[in-house]
């Protein structure tokens, strides 16, 4: 109980420290800086302008929010990919449920197969490609 109280107290202190105001005092040094700022081929204003282009007005965003690959794909292709991911997820969950029915499988964990766990990630991927398909359909692609 004492260890749990200590862990909870440490978590509360860490969380409250995140919301504490930061002091604005700085130490001024008269010593020159020993390094030069690294020059980059990209200007910060160009990067900020690219990031600011992702806003939109209205019901649906422009196709460019989907990235360089999916923004060029037609809605039908994204819909088929979404159905593929969904069917992989459903198949993996169904096969995993069938393995749970094997006697003793729940006791030793033999019903957990890596390929069914991997296939279960098809659900979120199906949702994402479904939304991408909807965006492309609304944008006329």
Helix % is 55-70%
What fraction of the residues are assigned to beta strands by DSSP? under 5%
Q: Which structural class is indicated by helix and strand composition?
A: mainly alpha
**Residue windows where pLDDT falls under 50 for at least 5 positions:** none
Q: Output mean pLDDT.
A: 81
Round the Cα radius of gyration to an integer and report it.
26 Å
> How would a crystallographer describe the biggest sheet?
none
How many DSSP-defined strands? 0
Count, helices:
7
Global geometry: flat
- The end-to-end distance, rounded to whole angstroms, is 60 Å
Question: Can you offer a commentary on this structure?
Answer:
It is a single chain. By secondary structure, the protein is mostly helical. The chain has seven helices and no strands. The chain has helices at residues 2-18, 44-52, 67-70, 75-100, 105-108, 114-119, 122-138. The radius of gyration is 26 Å and the shape is flat. The N and C termini lie far apart (60 Å).
Concise account of the structure shown:
This protein has 7 helices and no strands. The chain has helices at 2-18, 44-52, 67-70, 75-100, 105-108, 114-119, 122-138.
Entry keywords:
7 helices; flat; mainly alpha; 141 residues
Note the topology.
Blueprint lengths: L1 H17 L25 H9 L14 H4 L4 H26 L4 H4 L5 H6 L2 H17 L3
